[in-house]
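Dear Dr. H.,

I hope your travels went smoothly. While you were away I took the liberty of generating a structure for the chain from your last submission, since the lab meeting agenda had it listed for discussion. I wanted you to have the full record in hand beforehand rather than looking at slides cold. The sequence, exactly as received, is reproduced here:
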Amino acid sequence: MEQGETVSPSAAQEKVGKEEDDDLGYRLFPERNKNPQSFLVRSLFTFHNKCQVMLRMTLETNPYAQLLLEAMKQSGCTVFNDRHFSCENCDACVGGGFDSATSQIVLCQNNIRHQSHMNRVVTHELIHAFDHCRAHVDWFKNVKHLACSEIRAANLSGDCTLMNEIARFKFGLKGHQQTCVRDRAIRSILAVRKVSKEMAEKAVDEVFDACFNDLEPFGRIPHSKTDAKRAFRDFQNRDRYNANL
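The corresponding predicted structure, in token form, is as follows:
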């Protein structure tokens, strides 16, 4: 599993069976290994209903998510709400995750309590999904691949905006974005892989420059919704001139 703000029943059980010493982060998402509840049963729980409503709002109105959905569609990986998103109860330390074995984004309904948090989690996990779509990412065996996607997700999702960092009581200004992205990428790796902190730091540092500067599909670091709207507009117009030649 790749953690967001990080996961497959049958596929997970196979991998866990092979690698008993490393659960690949699935311990944070206990419902991944259970039979899914019926829609009627799930609809009776307020957390699930609220999660579904907030998810729909994000997909319909958030420019970060809208750009990523369009980029994935153009890359041949159309995202469907009922197929590729799942609201589930998770460990208290995570907000969401991307299950590469099922190409499904897990949203932690017991931990996501407000719309802005849902926006960030969905965006973060859609960046993992976009990377999964466009590249041959070895999520389970190559920690550098995981590190690269975590760097990109922290950098492009709004996780490291100045306001979010101030809310975490972190007030550094010089090199703020780079420091925040590095720290959050390391934390995400440690949450889902049984590796040492030194190994996680080494993986992040070795790929940091290339992955920090990989701004696809945004073309810029979107520090706000205004930036994201501009990036979405630019993305929609990206091929217009070539098409008219």
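Two observations you may find useful: Confidence is low (pLDDT under 50) at residues 6-21. Residues 42 and 48 are 6 Å apart (CA to CA).

With kind regards,
E. W.
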